[in-house]
Amino acid sequence: MALGAKTSFLFRHVAYALLFTLLAAGSHMDVAYLQGVQRPVLLSTFLADHWLLPHISDQTCDSIVLFLRKCAHLTEYAVLALLFWRAMRKPVRRDPRPWSPRLAILSIIIVMLYAATDEIHQSFVPTRTAHFSDVVIDTTGGAAGIFALWLIGRWRKSW
Predict the structure, then answer these.
(1) How high is the pLDDT of residue 27?
(2) pTM, two decimal places
(3) For residue 40, how many other CB atoms are within 10 A of its CB?
(4) In the chain, where the domains are located
(5) 111, 146 in Cβ contact below 8 A?
């Protein structure tokens, strides 16, 4: 692969990571905004304004929103881990190379470092809070993405 092609290949993945950071960092993405947007959508769409579940409390609704937000983090970081793995492996059609645990672990470590820097960044944003548990959740999402990739590869007999 020529240097220009390598640069273009990595640029797409770095651009995704930057976009990921910018979307998370914007003032429009703070917790108050998300709760203000997600809660009415959740109540009106999933719970039908207490018609479907009339006795659900606001606390339960907030717990459901929190759960959905953490699931979104798991998914986002799974995609990020897959992109890092792909950038390092540079797969080709009908790739004959076996599974590389080294690349899988390296992808998860990069995701963990990215999650940690994201939490450090959040500690400086007045409307956000940084939690070690979020780093754990994000890293778990990355590991789940790599594990799913490995399972699919085994199922398809790619490695």
Answers:
(1) 44
(2) 0.71
(3) 11
(4) 3-155
(5) no
